[in-house]
Specification:
Elements lengths: L8 E5 L2 E5 L3 H11 L4 H9 L5 H14 L6 H5 L6 H16 L2 H6 L2
Antiparallel strand pairs: 1-2
């Protein structure tokens, strides 16, 4: 079971069950990757509902690294997910929702 108090989610990626979490370090990594000046800007980006495939790779990879896995973005891009593209979207959405509560995301819209 994921520790929801820590913002953990579980997902089937690359043929196995994995834990993902956006730690402070993972969030800093995403701020840099997306050119966001702060967490509010990052939440606004996520709240827009417009994420590219590359964005999904970055979010999922940061979540895996936050949980202690040593993976590159390219390795994550090569992983399969249950449900294909929709599965990747679900994983990223679950991870974002576990990290930012609904109020934080709605406040950016």
């Amino acid at each position: 079971m994921p520790n929801t108090y820590r913002g953990e989610v579980k997902a089937d990626l690359g043929g196995r069950r994995r834990t993902l979490v956006l730690t402070l370090g993972a969030l800093a990594e995403l701020e840099s990757a997306f050119g966001a000046n702060d967490l509010v800007a990052l939440a606004e980006r996520f709240g827009s509902g417009r994420l590219s495939a590359r964005d999904l790779v970055r979010i999922i990879a940061a979540g895996l690294r936050g949980a202690g896995e040593s993976v590159t973005d390219d390795e994550v891009a090569a992983m399969s997910a249950d449900g294909g593209a929709a599965g990747y979207v679900r994983i990223a959405a679950d991870l974002i929702a576990a990290t930012f509560d609904d109020a934080a995301i709605k406040a950016t819209r």
